[in-house]
Design goal:
Helices cover 19% and strands 31% of the residues. A six-stranded mixed barrel has the order 11-15-12-14-13-16. The protein has a five-stranded antiparallel sheet with strand order 1-2-6-10-9. The longest helix has 18 residues.
Length: 523
Amino acid sequence: VSADTAPLKTISFSTDTLSKGYTFSEPTGQFRLMIGGGTFAVPSKVSVSRVEPTTLPAWGTMVRTSDAYSIAVTGLTDTAPLLVPLAFQFAVPQPGFVTWIGKLSPDGLSWEQLGSQLKANGSIVASADDKAAFTVALFQSSTVQEGIATYYGTYTRKTKSTMVAASNSYPYGTSLKVTNLDNNKVVIVKVMDTGGFRYPTVIDLSTPSFARIQPTWKGVARVRVEIAQPGDKSTPAPEEPVVTPTLTPTTTAAPTYHGVKIPTTAATASIVVDVSSGQKLVGKNSDAQLSIASLTKLMSAAVFLDMKPVLTNIVTYNSKTSTTGYDYLHVIDGEQLTLNDLLYASLVGSANNATMALADATGMPRKQFVQKMNDKAVALGLTNTSYVDPTGLKAGNKSSAKDLAVMATIFPNTYPTIKKITSTGSYTFTSNNNVCLPAYKQKNGTCVHTVKTTDMLFGKTSFSIVAAKTGYIDEAQNTFVLRGKNTKGNEVVVVLLKVTNKNRIFSDANMLMNWTFANYTWT
C-alpha cells in the first residue's frame, strides 16, 4: 500500500486474509480503507495514495476537510472481478455539520455525493461502487448543521426574547433558522448560551422555541440548523392540547366484573388495568408515590428511543462514566458493542451500567437526560412520577402504581422495540472487537455475552407476557410491572410496588393476572 510519496508496497493476501479481510488505516487516522472478506476472487494489488490538492476541483459551498485519496485495484479480470464494493471511513473533524463523501468524476472536474452513514463515534462510512479505481474526499458545510434538537425548560438569562437557544458552534448573538426535518416547521432563534451536549445533539432550544417545531412531549426533534437570512420567519405557534392524567387510551367498553372476592396481595400499592379501555379494575393505594427501583428503566428507554438512535451503531464501553457498583453487564473498558446490545441488557437483565451507557450515547449530559425523563412524565400527565437518575438505583426515583400502569399501557404500543425486548427471556450478543473478560472468551477468540430476564414468571404462565420489568433496591423493596394477554387477545396490566419477599411478588402478579382473566368478561 502506498500513501503520500512512500514507495508502493505489495500486500500478499494469504487464503486466510482473503477470507477474513484487511483494513488499511492512514497514519493520521483520518482515513481507513476496509477490504471485506471475499472481496477478491484472486490475489490482487491495492494501492492508496494522496492526491495533490492543487489538482482537485471545488464543490459549491462545501469545504473539503480531508485529504483526497485515490484507490486503485490491479489484478482483476472479467472472470475474476471485484466481488464486494470497497468500504472506507473518514474521521469527521466537526460532527454535526452537514457532511458528505465526494467521489471524483472520471474527468477530474467535479464531485459526486456517495451514500453514507454517520456513526455515533464521529466518523462517516461509505461504500464505493464496483469500480476498481476511484478518488474520494470528505466535505463539510461550514454553516449548516444537522442532528438532534433538545429543549431545556425555562430560560434563565435576562433576555426579552424567549426564542433563544444554546449552541456550541455559532457565536453568541447569531440568529439561526432551525427546521424540523420531519415536518418542515421552522423557528428563528438567537444564540444566547453554550451547552454541555455533544453530537448527535446540535442545538438546545428554549421550550417556547422548541414548541414551534415539535410537541414538547416528544422531547427531541431531527433538525437542520443554519444562519437565518432576511425574510426567514418562524412557523406560527401551535395550540398544544392540555394533557391530563388518564388510564383511558380508547373508548372501548371496560370488561364486566362477576363479583368474585378480590384476592389480597403483599404489595403496599397495586393496580390492575384493562389495556383496551384503560379502566382500573382493582387496586390498593394506587396513587401512593413510592420508590420504584429499576422500573425507572422503562422511562429511560423511552427517552433514549425518542432520540431516534441507529441501534446497530457501535459504542466503546467506558467504565469511568458507566459503572454504578451494581453492574450486571460484565463488560470491560474498550469492549465494543451495539446500542441494541445495551438496550437489551438494560431492559432484559436490568443492567445499570448498560442504562448509563445508553444515556451517555444520546450526547446529553446526565442531568439533561434525567430532565428529559421528567419532562416526558409531565407530558404524559404522570403527576406522581419523578426521576433523579436513569437506572433506579436512587430512592428518589418515584412513581405510583397508577402512573406505571399508564406507562405499561402506552410504551409497548408506542415503542415496538420496548415491547419486543421486555417480552424476551434471554439475549445473546458477541462483542464487536473480541475484547472481554476471560470468562466470556470463547475458544475461537470471540466474546459472547448472554443476558437473562429478571422476570421469574417468564415461560411459566398460562397467559402470554406482552411486557415485564422488575426492580429492587432496599428502599423500594421488590417492584414489578407485568402486561399479559389471554388466549382471546384481552390484555391486562398488573403493577405491584413494595413487596418484601421476591418470590411473593411474582406469585401475586401471576395470581392477579389469572384471577382477572377468570372473573372479567370482555365484549
